[in-house]
Amino acid sequence: MTRPAPMTRPAPLTLLQLAMTLALGLVTALGIAQRGIADEPVRIVSAGGSITEIVYALGQQDRLVARDTTSNHPAQALELPNVGYVRRLSPEGLLSVNPDLILAEEGAGPPETFEVLEGSGLPIITIPMGFDLPAVQEKITAVAAALDVPAAGAALVAQVTEEVEGAQKAAGLHNQRILFVLSMQGGRIMAAGRNTAADGIITMAGAQNAIDGFEGYKLITDEAVITAAPDVILMMQSHRPGAITADDLLSHPALSTTPAGRDQAVLQMDGMLMLGFSVRTGQAVTELANALATAGH
C-alpha cells in the first residue's frame, strides 16, 4: 500500500513573514477604514532625502507625515517624524504613522520590509536613482507623477535643468583628479569608483574621478591610493562623533604622499547637497567647481 507523502512544515522564516504580513495588513486596513479612501494620497512617507527635497519644491509638503534620516533639507522636514535610515527601515516604523503611500528611493530597504508592506496592500512607489542630469529630471518627473502634479513637475524639471546647465557652463574644466573618501576602516580608505553619486558630481563639475578601476564604494590599498595620485581629496561634512576629519586624511601615510596630501587640498561638502542628485544639484555643481578652482592654493 502506498503511503501518502508526509506534510512538510513551512520554514520558520516563512511563518514569521506570513504572521507579520497578516498583522500589518490588518493595521493598514483599519487605518484605511478610519480615514476613508482618498482620491489621492494625503499621508505620505518619504524614504529618501532627494525625494523629500522634490516634494517640498513641488509645494506638496503638507501631504508628508514622516521622512527618513537622510531627509535633512529643507529644515522644516526635520520637524516630521523620523522612520529611520533609508536602507534599514522597519515595517512597524513605517506603519506607525498610518501612511497611504510610501515614496521610496531605489535601493531603500531592507527588501524584507518592503515585501511585508506590499503584502499588506500599502501602495509603494519606487523612485529611480541616477547620477547625472537626465537622472535628476527623471526623478522629479516620477515624484510629480506619484503626487499627480505633472504640470508642477514639468516646471520644476525646466528650472533645475536651467540651473544645472548654467552651473556646468560657468564651472569650466578644471580636470583635477579627485579622490572621494567615504570613510576609513582599519586605516584603509573607502573610496568612490565609477557609477556612484560621488563620481557623478565630480564629472558634472568638470573634474575626474581618480579611481576608475571599479564600480561602487570599496576599500583600496595604500598602493592604489598612491597610484591614483589625487590632486584633491573630497569628503562629506560630518559632525558625528568618531567621523573622519581632514586631519585624519592628511596624516594617512599613503594620502600624505599624494599631490593632494602635499598641498593639503581637502574639500568638505554637505553630503545631501553633494550626493543627493535632486533639486539642488545645480548649487552642488557650482559650489564644488568653485572650491576646486582654489583647492590647494
Walk me through the structure.
InterPro entries: ABC_Transporter_SBP, ABC_transptr_periplasmic_BD. It comes from Shimia marina. Pfam families: Peripla_BP_2. This protein is α/β, with parallel strands linked by helices and about 300 residues long. The protein has 2 domains: about 25-30 and about 35-165, Rossmann fold (3-Layer(aba) Sandwich); about 175-295, Nitrogenase molybdenum iron protein domain (Rossmann fold, 3-Layer(aba) Sandwich). The protein is about 45% helix and about 15% strand. Strands 5, 6, 7, 8, 9 and 10 form a 6-stranded mixed sheet that branches. The chain has a 4-stranded parallel sheet with strand order 2-1-3-4, with helices on both faces. Strand 1 (about 45), helix 2 (about 50-55) and strand 2 form a beta-alpha-beta unit. It is globular and about 60 Å long.
Task: Look up the CATH topology of the largest domain.
Answer: Rossmann fold
Number of strands: 10
Shape: globular
How many structural domains in the coordinates? 2
Helix-residue proportion = 40-55%
Low-confidence stretches: 1-38
The number of helical elements comes to 12
- Bin the strand percentage: 15-25%
Name the CATH architecture of the largest domain. 3-Layer(aba) Sandwich
State the separation between the terminal residues, measured CA to CA.
Answer: 90 Å
**Helix-strand pattern:** HEHEHEHEHHEEHEEHEHHEHH
Nearest-angstrom radius of gyration?
23 Å
Structural class: alpha/beta
Largest sheet: 6 strands, mixed
